[in-house]
Amino acid sequence: MKVTTKTIKDITVIEAEGNIDSRTAGEFEKASIAATQDEDKVIIDLSQVEFLSSAGLRSLLMLYRQVKARDGKIVLVGVSEEIQEVMENTGFINFFTLTELLEDGVKELS
Known about the structure:
single chain, alpha/beta, five-stranded mixed β-sheet, globular
């Protein structure tokens, strides 16, 4: 699991690489929450994530709650069909805006 952050305009972009599962979800959550403590526009790029477990979903929910508390918004970018299906089945998809490309996510938050 590799988590990197960058800023595009006034948007915090979190890029995850690898699986987000019970072994790595804590690392992902800790890095993501630290990077977005005062942010209200967040993109999470999941284009390099092949698997997202229930622990990963929980991490996304924790991040969503933190950003939403500031009336912010999170856009998920590059979510695979398999992960989208899991998110649809659990209702998590309703919390996020999804886009295919990073550029589209930036437009969504601009």
